């Protein structure tokens, strides 16, 4: 377990037992992110069987009031509507199109997508990797990413004022144990990604030799500066507005989305539908693998079916099967392909 998750669990336990001293363990629970995480693990996490609950004394009065007056609807959809994904890709600019395909087609987080380099694309195998620039994972060319950035480009990825920015953080590995990205529909979206990539490289891509500041990251502005999350999220909301005008019945849903992370949620939603309609609940474990999730319970953050009964069924099946063994890369891709074929109409 990474330190952030460990701290959240520890804070929940201290809160449950009503720790009233002022040591740093209790103070962790005043962090908004830790509170949200603890609320989730109360229901689905490893502490759920112990009935670990949040102590009311640990939440300052102002925070309790803010939570009760929260104007956001907790039941609002957080997944981009999958039936509009093709329309979104169609109206996007070439560079945005590639980012949307990565985030929606493979469940990549925006920070992960923005760390793509050409050295992560294997054109011969038609495969894509996403490598954390702070790690020394070896790419297909034998380069250790963090050392390579330092030695070839002079980039200290940990302390560089731009490349270490919060919105460019990679977070967790994706996929969890295998090298190349999984696509929920390889025949359509992976091939579309490579077709669009080839066109973009031939027309608009700014070569490293032409960049004022030398760096290998793929997504850049015309001045060769790196694309930022706020920049692409702004484009995304503009595209959502266009789609809401074209499809009025989706207006409220599209206006409630908070950014590109809704495409990752869409991926999870599609996987949930595949599992429901195919009856193959191993897809839950495959989804966790594809999305880089180590704790199966976390998958349900992304599934969010509108029907509570369906969500309960998925949770029950996952707990009952309890088979987290991932056989191999080929079996996962084959299972996703079969599920897609059973579903039939996605991507058409």
Structural summary, described in words:
The chain has two domains: 3-68, no CATH class; 77-348. Helix content is 51%, strand content 1%. The chain is built from 16 helices and two strands. It has a two-stranded antiparallel ribbon. Helix 6 crosses helix 12 (261-278). The protein is globular.
**Sheet having the most strands:** 2 strands, antiparallel
Helix content: 40-55%
Tell me the overall shape.
globular
Low-confidence stretches: 24-29, 58-75
- What kind of oligomer do you see? single chain
Q: Specify Rg, calculated over alpha carbons.
A: 21 Å
How much beta, percentage-wise? under 5%
Secondary-structure content class = mainly alpha
Number of domains: 2
What is the string of SSEs from the N terminus onward? HHHHHHHEEHHHHHHHHH
Order of the strands making up the biggest sheet: 1-2
End-to-end gap: 40 Å
**Contiguous helical run count:** 16
Number of strands: 2
